[in-house]
Structure formats: C-alpha cells, structure tokens
Amino acid sequence: MTVPPLFQGLFDDAAVFPPGDLPLAEAVPAHLRHRSAWYADAVGPFLCGAGRAGELAALAAPGLRVGLVLPGGSTRPGPVQGVDVVGIELVADSVPADLPEGVTVSLELPRDEQLQQRLDRLAGTPHRAKFRTGGLTADAFPTEAELAALLTACAEREVPYKCTAGLHHAVRHTDPATGFEHHGFLNVLLAAADPARAAEALAERSGAVLAAAANGLSLGQIATARASFTAFGTCSIAEPLADLAELGLLTQENR
C-alpha cells in the first residue's frame, strides 16, 4: 500500500478549473501521469465541465475516470462518448430521478436556510452533498462554526460529502495575499473522524498537532472520516502531497 488509507482517493483532479486553469490538452496527460505515479492511490477522478466532454473524449485514454461538473441550472449531462464517467456534480434542490446509474452524484448545496431540508432529502440515498469551502471573496469561506455545523448535520444523517474550493493546503491558515481564512483538508478529515469535536478540529492551526492527531486515529476512526469526507477538488495534486510529506504523514516509508 503506497498511500495511507486516510488519504486514498481524496484528491479529485480539478486542474482545468480556477485558479489552475490548465488547458485540457495539458491536464489530461498530467492526470494520467498522476494515475501511474507512486501516489496514484491518493488521486481521484479527473474533473471536467460537462460542456467540454466532446473535447475531452478526443483526448481521452483508456483508464481515464471522469467526474462531470454540470453548470448551474443543468440537471443532466448530454451524451458522452469514449469517456468513463464515474461521477456527476450538479447544483439542484434535489437529485433528478433519471441520471445514469452506477455513477456517484454530488449535489452542491448552497449555504442558506433550506440546507437542512436538502440534507434530509439526501439522507438514505446513495448520493452525496457537495460544499463550497472557499472562493474569490471572504464570505465564500464558511466560518469554523458554520462548517462544523454542516459536517455534524451530515454525520447525523449519514450523508457523505465532498468539498470544493479553498482547501489548498492541509492546515488551516490565513492567506497572506488576500487575508482570507482557509480551512485545511487535514482539519476537515479530523473533524469528520470525530464530529463531536468538529469545531475544535477545524480551528487548529498547528500542523504538528494535526499530524499527531491523524497518526493517532484508529482504523475505525479513519473509516468514519472517509465514509463522510469522501474527496475534495484540487487544481494541484502536487501541493497537498507536499503538505502531507512536510507533516510526516506521507514519507519515503509509505512508498
């Protein structure tokens, strides 16, 4: 096993989305290199806007697993040829009934007064929630208390979730360029492992403390964390791997 279970399949490849904006012709070969590297077990599907599926099909290679991201207002993808679609991400009040079978559906939920009701509708389905944890403005980042409440609400309903935007590094930090408060993906993993202490885990800014807590998780706690927090989209696969290496959580011994 080259990658510890806590991080397997955690990093969905969003290289073509901002702020990475890598051209598709470069992003697909780069993704295939990730999928053949020693850290391949950490890499999830390649994320692509549904409107570019035709362009993607022309570049696709055997084994390319794709998550299609639908634009706002769209509830179903058009026909896709030559691509192994394993996930669909969309913005809607509920999951449409006629989506393709056998794919993971992620329903992006806005942070409004209807959120709890939307989670109720997801409970008991095979689908997962999707939360934005950042963006171009400060208010796009949920506070520690707000995100803790979201994760706890999901845990209470046994609704899995993925995150998108803002999780650029493992540890919570203040971006020196913007002043925005960024959540850390390791913080979110630890919050998912113990929802009763989610706010505490999300607030921690010490990488050493978080690394020690991650190393101390039992197999059951790791399973709980990953059953809840399934993945997040990142425009860079290298950056989260580098953070984990710096924290001693992904070392030469893992390879």
Helix content: 25-40%
- Class derived from helix and strand content: alpha/beta
Contiguous low-pLDDT stretches (5 residues minimum) are none
Average pLDDT rating: 92
Write the layout of secondary structure elements.
Elements: E1 11-13, H1 24-36, E2 43-49, H2 53-59, E3 65-69, E4 84-91, E5 104-108, H3 115-122, E6 128-132, H4 144-157, E7 161-164, E8 173-174, E9 181-182, H5 185-193, H6 198-203, H7 207-215, H8 219-228, E10 229-234, H9 238-246
Parallel strand pairs: 1-2, 1-10, 2-3, 3-4, 4-5, 5-6, 6-7, 7-10
Antiparallel strand pairs: 8-9
Structure, briefly:
With 255 residues, the chain is α/β, with parallel strands linked by helices. Helix content is 33%, strand content 18%.
Write up this protein.
The protein is an alpha/beta fold and about 260 residues long. It has one domain (about 5-245): TIM Barrel. Helix content is about 35%, strand content about 20%. The chain contains 9 helices and 10 strands. The chain has helices at about 25-35, 55-60, 115-120, 145-155, 185-195, 200-205, 205-215, 220-230, 240-245; strands at about 10-15, 45-50, 65-70, 85-90, 105-110, 130, 160-165, 175, 180, 230-235. An 8-stranded parallel beta barrel has the order 1-2-3-4-5-6-7-10. A two-stranded antiparallel ribbon has the order 8-9. A hairpin with a 6-residue loop joins strand 8 (about 175) and strand 9 (about 180). Helix 5 (about 185-195) crosses helix 8 (about 220-230). The radius of gyration is 17 Å and the shape is globular. It starts with 10 loop residues before the first strand and ends in a 9-residue tail after the last helix.
